[in-house]
Structures are given as structure tokens and as C-alpha cells.
Amino acid sequence: MAHNTESFFALNEALLSSALAAVVFSLLSAQPLTVVGITGLISLFNYTIFHILQLHDVSLYPNFMVWVGIWSAIFHWLTAIFNLCDLMRTVTDFSSDTFALYVGTIYIIKGFEELSINFYDNTILNGFASALVAVLYTLTVYLLQKIGATCLFNSTTRTILSDYAYPLATVFWTGFSHFPGNLADVDFIRLPTSRAFFPTAARSWVVSFWDLPVKWIFVAAPFGFLMTLLFYYDHNVSSLTAQARSFPLKKPAGFHWDFFLLGWTCLVAGILNIPLPNGLVPQAPVHTISLTNYEEEVQELKTKDGEVAIRKDMTAKSVVEQRLSHFIMALAIIGTMTGPLLTVLGLMPRALFSGVFFVVGWDSIESNGIVEKILFLCREARFQSPSDPLLTIKRSAIAHYLFWQLLGWACTVAISQTIAAIGFPVLIVALIPFRWVVMPRLFTRRELEVLDRLTAMNEIVLVSLGGKPEMPEEKRERLRLGRDEEGVEGDGRDGKGYEKSD
């Protein structure tokens, strides 16, 4: 974002925005488990607006972004007041899986773009060394995260290595980039830092946004609406995934209040000219996972040859539902804004951020429902699990369903690579009515029940959203059966086709 906005939005702005959101949501939100901060999508949104204004008058950008934040806050409040968050109960895996795949793809693309900066000015040595560090950092974090599901070491060690994979890898590979010897010949590009608690660029936190011409104030309105549309889906889906059915939560959700609160953070962040924060995926569900108490069960399975195989199963027993962990994150972020810690952050090679993008992106892709269905179609028949519900429907139906998801994914990724990138929230949100209106006409009820399901399945979440909705395929079948029964009664026959007797 700093590279694409000429450092108008950079490290200090991102830290202040993340700290603001973390303090507000840890103390005042109804869903404190949802981690809030700066996402890759808001970065995309911000620098796309910058590129658009470069075609007109880029000096308008500071004042214009304030009004985008103000309009976005107004639209957030209206959304919450009129209970429009209730519509999130209609979100299914059809759109959420597509969105997750899109987010993962964008993160990986941005990782490569960030890595390419290290090759600028013909610094080939630095470029290849940075690429190597980014790849090794990615593998380190990925493997440390996977240790939690293995049988290596003891339970405490596995938990520590898995939960603290990012800081452990960051400390090691930052130190690695400072090793003497041949590595000393590499001029790694470090994280650019500036004066503590001051904007990165030569400006004040609050600009004279009231001096923006009236015409441009109203031009900012549709941008604020698109920002709201993005947050409506992204933030609420983050809350849904942080409170998924797999987590044994007890405290109820509060989507309307949190979205109203998000409007206030949009207003404050807009006036301060910092990026607007919202819910983070996959950080939000990862936060809940780290607070979940799992019970490990060891099972002994005997093979045909009489040998005994050991299998470890992990069952979620409870979740530590509190505000403290999120608030500690806020304090830690505020700490990194101080001079000494900014100096420490300046020791980090930029290549590590490419690695972060790669890991976060791959996390969204690896466990994605679209990828799982593609692997099912590619897997040899004799190795399919006999209990897999996908075996009960035609393979052509699975391929047809994937076609529409991949089409939505391809369109959003494609538009995100153009100056029209600010329109991608429209495509994402449009997948919801497409699923409810068009898909039931293309697939049978049984096929949709196997291929898709509601994203909000946790009872405590559905209470906040007005309850579980009736799926469109269920309604179509109910209405069809009702018409059939009326037709049978009008024909004087019972349900089995025999004439009724008096």
C-alpha cells in the first residue's frame, strides 16, 4: 500500500488503524473474538482510488479519503439501524468459498508483487536472496502450524510451536538476514519506518477535508457505499467464521451492534486519514482456534495382519470467551508504534511480508471447499471415502456447480487487476442473490443439499440474525408439492391416484 500510494498510507498509518480497531472492538463489541485490522482488500481499495485520482488531481486524495470514510460511516449506521445484517443468514458456502478463494488468490498475487520490489534498480542479488528468504519463511510458518496436528514432542510443545509460528519464524529469519559472511553482500530492503506517532508522509493526521469542493464530496459517496459493501460481506463473514459451528461457544453474537460500531471506527479512521479497519480472515477464526480447549483422544486400530495403528483425534471441548486476548493485541500494536520498537521493526526484511501474504493466502486456499471438490473429481474412484456425500450425486452436477463458483472467482480476480478494482465488492455480494434465485433452477434440492450449506450454522449466531432461513430449493419443493396436492384434490383422487369415496 505504501508503494502504491507514494507512502501516504504506510507503516504508521496501518499500526494506528489496527490499534484503534483492536481497542474499540476488544472493549465495546458484542463479538470480541473477531479480530479487526487492516486487510489486503482495503489496501487494494485505497490504492485503486489513488490511481483513479491520479487521472484527475491527486492532490485531492487526502481530503477525498476523509469523505469516503464519512460516507462509509453513514452507510454503516443505516445498515445497522435497519437490521440489514439479518441478510447475512442467507450467505452460503457457495459465495463464502468463492470469496475465500478470491482472498487467498489476491494475497498470493500481492505477495509476488511485494517480492518484485526487491528486484527494482537491477538489484538481482538482493532480489533472489529475498525470494529465498520469503519461500523459507513461508515453509517455516506452514510446517510449525502443522505440528499441532502431529504426534511430535509433547502436547505443550506442539501448542507453543503451532500458536506462535509467525513470531518464531519472524525472529529467526530476521536474524538470518543479518548473518555475516556471504549474506553481508546482500543489501536486503528493510521495512521503511518513520518518526513515532507521526504520519509517514509530511502531513498532519487531520487534514482540512472541509475545503474539498462540493462536487468531489458527492463523488466520494459511491466510493463510501462500495467500501460499506465490502465491509458488509468481509467483516460479517469474518465474524461468522470466528463463531463457526465447530466452536463450542456459549455467548450470543451481535452483528448489528458490531456493524454500527464499525461505522464509528470508519468515521474516526477517515478523519485521521488512516486505512479503514474491518474483520480479518483468516486471523479471526485462528484467534478462536487458539482460545479453544481441545481434548486429544488416542485410538488403537488393529489391521488385518494383527498390527496396531495409533490414531490421534482432537475434539473441541470449550472456548475461552473473553476480551483480554484481543485487548492485549491492541496494547502490543500500540507498543510497536513507539520509537524503540519501530527501530526493531526496521530490521525486518520486506521479503518476510511476502512470506506472510503467501501463508495467509495458502491457508484460505488449502482448506477451501472449492479445492476439496476439485480434488474429489480428480481422485481415483477406489480411494474415495465411501461415506462422502458427494458420491450420492452425479459428477457432472459437481462440475457444473464448480463452474459457477470458479466463474465468480475468475471475474473478481480479473477486475481486481484493473483500475475498476473498487467494483469487486459488487461481484462478491451479487453471488448471494444468484445462489438464491438462479441456482435452485439449475440444480435439484438433493444436489444443493450436498454441494452447499448455510455459512451461519451455529445456533447462537442464527439467534442474532433472526433465525435459520428457509432455503429456496426447499421452498420451491414445498410449493410444488402443495400444487400437486391441490391438483389431486381437484381431480377427486387421493394421494395414491384412487378415486375418493364419500
Brief descriptors of the model:
mainly alpha; two-stranded antiparallel sheet; two-stranded antiparallel ribbon; 20 helices; disordered C terminus
For the sheet with most strands, the description reads: 2 strands, antiparallel
Shape: globular
Approximate helicity band? 55-70%
Order of helices and strands: HEHHHHHHHHEHEEHHHHHHHHHH
Strand order of the largest sheet: 1-2
Radius of gyration (CA) equals 26 Å
Mean pLDDT: 88
C-alpha end-to-end distance: 79 Å
Structural class: mainly alpha
- Counting DSSP E segments of at least 2 residues, the number of strands comes to 4
**Poorly predicted ranges (pLDDT <50, ≥5 residues)?**
495-502
Query: Strand portion, in percent?
Result: 5-15%
The number of helical elements comes to: 20
Note down, in words, how this protein is organized:
There is one protein chain. The chain is mainly alpha-helical. The chain contains 20 helices and 4 strands. It has helices at residues 11-28, 40-54, 61-81, 93-116, 124-147, 155-163, 165-176, 214-242, 255-271, 283-290, 324-336, 339-345, 351-366, 369-378, 395-416, 424-437, 439-442, 445-451, 459-464, 472-490, and strands spanning 36-37, 278-279, 292-302, 308-319. The strands form 2 sheets. A two-stranded antiparallel ribbon has the order 1-2. It has a two-stranded antiparallel sheet with strand order 3-4. β3 and β4 (308-319) form a beta hairpin. The longest helix has 29 residues, at 214-242. Mean pLDDT is 88; it is low at 495-502.
Secondary-structure blueprint of this entry?
Layout: H1 11-28, E1 36-37, H2 40-54, H3 61-81, H4 93-116, H5 124-147, H6 155-163, H7 165-176, H8 214-242, H9 255-271, E2 278-279, H10 283-290, E3 292-302, E4 308-319, H11 324-336, H12 339-345, H13 351-366, H14 369-378, H15 395-416, H16 424-437, H17 439-442, H18 445-451, H19 459-464, H20 472-490
Antiparallel strand pairs: 1-2, 3-4
